[in-house]
Write a structure and sequence with these properties.
The protein has 361 residues and is mainly alpha-helical. 52% of the residues lie in helices and 8% in strands. It contains 15 helices and 8 strands. The strands form 4 sheets. The chain has a two-stranded antiparallel sheet with strand order 1-2. A two-stranded antiparallel ribbon has the order 3-4. It has a two-stranded antiparallel ribbon with strand order 5-6. It is elongated and about 85 Å long.
Length: 361
């Protein structure tokens, strides 16, 4: 079978060495019919398909490429570089695995969102209060010259409007993402809140909103606005939110690891919103991080897995949220076992992957 492009021949299923217009084409993979996909699953991957009609129905609901997903080898046999599933794996079990992964993603988003709400609320509160306290400490003459205003801004009709920072984060028009949240935190890494405007001499910009400050404010704000104090207050709110003692939280996470933990949260949050699997998600481990010193596998691989992320949930969300998450996961595993008849050996692989066991205390 061949395809002609500008008098050049590409053999389908073979590599092409054409170097001009076809640089991006390395190999053409012939698409297979669903009925043939069932044969491949059975012959190549040792998946049991008892009923072809039922198998076709599953393939209409769930893409073949998700059912046979090389990176997700939880149910593969243990032989080296195996591409076959462990004995007894039926196509309907693989569909349940895809559903289970989607379930985990949805539950993780609920958990992470509770952290984001707390974090942004705390950020907005302490940032606004820091500015208000400085304003309250100004002389009445300076206050009159400065005029009260909020730290938050929004762009409306190409005009910057001052609004409470809370509204900037939580209004229906908010476009703040978790990447922005991490950026906001990192901007507080030094004491200097204001920076000179490189384009206009004599004017300053704040590091959060790039908003111009009145000249009457600059000296006072530069001298008294403490971003380190805001960071500390936010951390204290987080420790209180998750119900940990200062000693326990600092021992497991600590101030030095907080930015790294935020990045871990970001990656797992984004993975929870992506069509691919989350069960096999890995995050590079910061060499300077001490968050996962308890896990020898994480250290040896220099990467953390989903069960490591679940392990640190109690350090950025409440115990109640974690307990509900674990409870819902156990219920789902029981449902797969009892209602969908997924074998115990398959369930046990999932328990190990998550670090959550149906009958643990």
């Amino acid at each position: 079978m061949s395809y002609v492009v500008e008098d050049s021949i590409i053999q389908l299923g073979k590599e092409t060495h054409h170097k001009e217009d076809l640089n991006d084409i390395h190999r053409y993979v012939i698409p297979t019919k669903r009925c043939d996909q069932l044969d491949i699953m059975h012959d190549k991957h040792k998946v049991i398909v008892d009923d072809n009609e039922m198998g076709m129905s599953i393939l209409r609901r769930t893409p073949y490429n998700l059912l046979i997903y090389p990176a997700l080898n939880i149910w593969f046999s243990r032989s080296q570089k195996s591409i076959t599933f462990m004995s007894g794996t039926k196509i309907e079990y693989l569909e349940e695995l895809v559903k289970f992964d989607s379930f985990i993603k949805g539950k993780l988003l609920e958990v992470i969102r509770s952290f984001e709400n707390m974090f942004l609320g705390s950020f907005a509160y302490h940032f606004e209060m820091e500015y208000k306290n400085i304003f309250d400490g100004m002389s009445s003459t300076m206050q009159q010259k400065t005029g009260k205003h909020n730290v938050g801004t929004q762009m409306t009709d190409n005009v910057i409007q001052l609004i409470p920072m809370w509204e900037q984060f939580f209004s229906n028009e908010s476009v703040v993402t978790i990447n922005d949240e991490i950026g906001l935190w990192n901007t507080l890494s030094t004491e200097k809140f204001l920076k000179p405007n490189s384009q206009i001499e004599g004017l300053y910009l704040d590091k959060i909103n790039s908003k111009r400050f009145r000249p009457s404010e600059i000296k006072t704000i530069k001298r008294k606005f403490s971003t380190q104090r805001v960071r500390q207050q936010i951390r204290e709110d987080l420790i209180n939110f998750c119900g940990k003692s200062d000693t326990s939280w600092n021992l497991q996470v600590g101030s030095d690891n907080f930015s790294h933990m935020m990045n871990i949260i970001r990656i797992f949050r984004n993975s929870s919103s992506h069509p691919r699997f989350i069960l096999d998600t890995k995050v590079p481990l910061d060499n300077n991080s001490s968050i996962f010193l308890h896990d020898s596998k994480a250290i040896s691989e220099n990467a953390i897995h989903l069960k490591n992320f679940i392990y640190i949930l109690p350090y950025f969300v409440s115990d109640e949220t974690v307990d509900l998450f674990r409870y819902e996961v156990k219920k789902r595993l029981l449902y797969m076992s009892h209602t969908k008849k997924v074998p115990n050996k398959h369930i046990q692989r999932l328990e190990k992957q998550l670090g959550i066991y149906i009958f643990d205390s």
